[in-house]
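step: validate -> pass
step: tokenize input -> pass
step: predict -> running
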Amino acid sequence: MKINTISGIKCFGGNQLKFSHQSDVLNCEMTFSVHLPPQAEDSPVPIIYWLSGLTCTDDNFVQKAGAQRYAAEAGVALICPDTSPRGEGVPDDPESAYDFGLGAGFYVNATQQPWSKHYQMYSYITEELPAVLAASELPLQTTNASIMGHSMGGHGALTIALKNPGKYKSVSAFSPICSPLNCPWGEKALSNFLGNNKDDWAEYDSCALIAKAEEKLPILIDQGDADDFLLKQLKPELLKAACDKAGHPLKLRMQPDYDHSYFFIASFIGDHIKYHADLLT
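step: predict -> pass
step: emit ->
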């Protein structure tokens, strides 16, 4: 579980770090980024995982969200993994489309060939990466964690939190894919990764998981009403209906005139970090 340091940059009194390691789960080398706040110089700090969306690497959030300022003020670390396995021999969408394959692992454990050898992102996020962090010398409270994400990563954050009661103190999302069972992005990814049995898809669908959630962890979602993907791909109304039916606490904030971009994320990331930090510290 050795990690290799790629870079380190001073940032808001703390450090923005980038690492690589060999992943046994994904059968390839992976990179991830960590922002350590200045408080980490004195004692281990709580962590917030950020899961990014389609086409992203760990760099997008680090470079565009402006999150480090708020994390430094709150005394929390930010952990930003990549969105899929990478490297020679890792299969991609046959047509090199952006919405499946490299950069689009959908945070599931693939069961179908040729994807299953590498595309085990669910286990990577929930098991291997936390173990890698715990075994490192990074000053992190690895058992005191929250999770959030954007778009495909919002889907990942919600489903992972719902499937792992007690593992995370809080969960939030920006513009999440709320029901992969009911949108083109989800139908394409889940049919390829998991096969044609939609009961298997439901294990990675937030709306389906809400109905049987063992823990009613409150959910915070920000969604722009000018998002081009809102009606066809994201469908927050389905999640709201599922939460209402199950009595699951949900705060869905529809933000007027905001789109799907990192300008939107940067506008509200401070709220999300405060939301998590209040429950972590």
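step: describe -> Strands lie at 4-11, 14-23, 28-36, 45-51, 77-81, 140-150, 171-174, 219-224, 250-255.
step: cleanup -> pass
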